[in-house]
Amino acid sequence: MNGMDVSVGEQYTADPAGGERLRRWRMVLGGGEADGTGCALTGRDAAMDAALGALYGGGGEAGSRRTSGARSAGLGGSAPNVARWLGDIRTYFPSSVVQVMQRDAIERLGLAALLLEPEMLEAVEPDVHLVGTLLSLNKAMPETTKETARAVVRKVVEQLEKKLATRTRATLTGALDRSARISRPRHRDIDWDRTIRANLKNYLPEHRTVVPERLIGYGRAAQSVKKEVILCIDQSGSMAASVVYASVFGAVLASMRSIATRLVVFDTSVVDLTDQLDDPVDVLFGTQLGGGTDINRALAYCQSKITRPADTVVVLISDLYEGGIRNEMLKRVAAMKAAGVEFVTLLALSDEGAPAYDREHAAALAALGAPAFACTPDLFPEVMAAALEKRPLPTP
Length: 396
Description:
The chain is α/β, with parallel strands linked by helices. Helix content is 47%, strand content 11%. The protein has 16 helices and ten strands. Helix 3 (43-56) packs across helix 4, helix 7 crosses helix 8 and helix 8 (143-179) packs across helix 11 (240-254). It is globular and about 85 Å long.
């Protein structure tokens, strides 16, 4: 038989590692005559293949287990089937993969409505994207589901706070201290470590001492170095993950005495959620994802709340699809910057990178000295620190 006529399965028969490669190809290709492997799956492999087929194949019921042939399962619209499938994927796949598959199931198969059932919420693996979906369903959510939904959201929020809070506070405290540095400090405010390093050239060996010609110290950040931060967040549907992260960061900033934090969300209307910042879960359930966008109106509100321009940072988080008055929006940004406000434009605050955004508006803001860029949660503390110190932003 010519080598060109040998099946894939026959090619790997004599190769001990070939069986594993063949198995992997079979899992990728999905079975059936077209995949050319001739490989049948059994046991755990067959169950994994059925779980994948339920989402990416189409056809019968989730959870059906096949030992050979093509994938033909499907989730259908039954809550019990979906709940069983959610349990299966958590059994067979790591958490990161489970989250991707859940997201695909919601988007590809229109299963969002099933998340309104408490039993379904208890079965899912919580993540930022699931929180965004729940928030978009908030207004349609029955009372019987709301407590379960809040528990899911709180679990994600607490995980994010644990991951982000310590580094954010440390980074911003350092930035505030540096911005408060003074050259003629009182004795109790002298930073001796920096002072000694700055005066090493004045070391007198015979006296074994340093003559401090220049003293370096800090003002008391909690009393004299108060900054104001306004987070202005677009709550249109495409910004869901950014809303979640911004709410968590808003709560962290609000916990710092030296920063006065205001959190504003907007679509075509503007809502100030500052009084709920002690609990980011309340903030998130105070948003309403979806709808139009009026950035100009939101910035007008933020501008009206600025009392100390030189000590204020405004962070606009938006994809910049403006439904309001474009020229007025740009004039407001220019006016704030002229008054001394540090203005930061983030196209997204998430791990996914920049979404679709209005490039013309982004270019116009960059021309005003407010470059627009997507920011990951890990980079956000550095961006805020740079803004507080009025130094160039660490754009990716």
